Amino acid sequence: MSMSQTESLDLDALWALRQHVMESGRLLTIELDDRGLIRDANMAFRSRFAGFDRVSGESPWRFLRIDEEARDLLANLPPRTPVALMLRETEDGEAYCFHAYRIAGGTLLIGEIASGVENEIVERMGHLAIQMSRLVRDLHKANHALAQANGLNEKLARSDSLTGLANRRYFMERLDTEVRHVRSRRRKLALLMIDLDHFKRVNDQFGHAGGDAVLVAVADLLRSQVRAADLPARLGGEELVAYLLETGLSAACEVAERIRLGIAELRPIAPDYRVTASIGVAELRDEDDPESLLKRADDLLYQAKTGGRDRVVAASPERAPARAELATQRLSGNHRRDPYGRV
């Protein structure tokens, strides 16, 4: 038997079953649309509840009583899982046992008058179904909240709480991964080690709140000057770092100089208080591991500090862009050229 013949038999069977329940003189059948309004109802239902009048477009709850929990259960019926409900006539209170089924575009309710024994049993089943539906719904909500909390906890575990940058642990994990990838693919990677100059004076003069404001402003600037593939981080205190993927020493020095000049323009705590930074720039070498790369960048940062601060020092000074030249470019508007190749 072919697939098309099987599908035809299935459709024929569904048609026959629908005709049976719709034409039944004993079963009460209501078909609801996706809004919960009556799309169709059989003669047995209309004769009992509507004096044979058409009821399409009416709410079934004009004829039957339903509480909010059962209404919520109907609105969230699981597929291929009939739910038993005990509903009562609005006028004389007679009880009916209905089974609800989810169908394409709505719900099918099939019921009949309930006997006393059925009334008690089905009513218990209905209450149990409602309770189970509520428990499943609450479980879904709890799982969703837990997933959100886990996502938040994971983000907090890898982020610095003040600046939102990556923290030292997460940065070192990512750097280790990227160093291995870069080495296996013969690509470039550069590291910027950044330290804010005379940061203790900021805390002494403006308090820790002032120091925090400076760190947040610098972190925002750093984020804006690197690409999504790069990773800026706060190692601790006023020491920041960033690795730049697919970036050689010359381009990394230009990025560092742009960051240095940008920091000098910040005024996060007072209009007349200028913040400066010293930056060491190192490019990954064949013999490097993450720790040795970080140490070389830190040594270059130390040279920038001892050389007068507010400057960029690279592994090969002759390859680093001259600060005076970059400053001239910046004043003339050429500083808008992006060392990454962006405009």
Structure, described:
With 343 residues, this protein is an alpha+beta fold. 49% of the residues lie in helices and 20% in strands. The chain starts with a helix and ends in an 11-residue tail after the last helix. The strands form two sheets. A six-stranded antiparallel sheet has the order 2-1-6-5-4-3. The radius of gyration is 36 Å and the shape is elongated. The chain has two domains: 3-145, Beta-Lactamase, CATH 3.30.450.20; 160-336, Alpha-Beta Plaits, CATH 3.30.70.
Report a brief summary of the structure:
The protein is an alpha+beta fold. The protein is built from nine helices and eleven strands. The strands form two sheets. A six-stranded antiparallel beta sheet has the order 2-1-6-5-4-3. It has a five-stranded mixed beta sheet with strand order 8-9-7-10-11, sandwiched between helices.
Notable features of this structure?
343 residues, alpha+beta, Beta-Lactamase, Alpha-Beta Plaits, 2 domains, 9 helices
Mean pLDDT comes to 81
Portion in beta strands: 15-25%
CATH superfamily of the largest domain: Reverse transcriptase/Diguanylate cyclase domain
Strand order of the largest sheet: 2-1-6-5-4-3
Largest sheet: 6 strands, antiparallel
Domain count: 2
Name given to the CATH architecture of the largest domain: 2-Layer Sandwich
Task: Write down how many β-strands occur, each being a DSSP E stretch of 2 or more residues.
Answer: 11
Provide the CATH top-level class of the largest domain: Alpha Beta
How large is the count of helical segments? 9
Given helix and strand content, the structural type is alpha+beta
Order of helices and strands: HEEHEHEEEHHEHEEHEHEH
Cα shape: elongated
Helix content percent band: 40-55%
